[in-house]
Amino acid sequence: MELTSPIFDEVNIEVGPSKHFKIMVKKESPKSVYIQSAKLNGKVYNHCYLDYADIMKGGTLELTLGDEPNKKWGVE
Questions:
Q1: Given Cys at both, which of 27, 33, 37, 46 links 76, Cβ 3.0 to 4.6 Å?
Q2: What gap in Å lies between CA 15 and CA 48, rounded to an integer?
Q3: CB 22 within 8 A of CB 57
C-alpha cells in the first residue's frame, strides 16, 4: 500500500479478533498535505509504502504532515 496524506485525522481498522491497526495524523496547519515523517509502532518509518503483513499484525502508524514536501522522507 502506498502512503499518501490521508483526509482524516485518525482511523481505527479492525484487522482481526481484538486486533486493530490505527492511523493517526498530526498536521502543522490546515494546508498540511505533505508527509514529513512517519512512525510505525513508535519506530521511525522511512518508506513510502506499507506492507499488508504489517497492517495485519496490528499496531499504529503515525504520520506528521507539513506544508512543504520533505524530499528526504520515504526514500528507503
A1: 46
A2: 21
A3: no
pLDDT exceeds cutoff 80 at 45: yes
What's the mean pLDDT in 38-51?
Answer: 95
Q: Which of 44, 63, 67 is nearest to 1 (CA)?
A: 63
Q: Do 61 and 44 meet the contact criterion of CB atoms below 8 Å apart? A: no
Place of cell 479478533: 17
Whole-angstrom CA distances from 52 to 1, 25, 40, 45, 58 are 7, 20, 13, 15, 10
Q: Give the Cα-Cα-Cα angle 14, 42, 6 (nearest 5 degrees).
A: 55
> Hey, is 66 helix, strand or coil?
strand
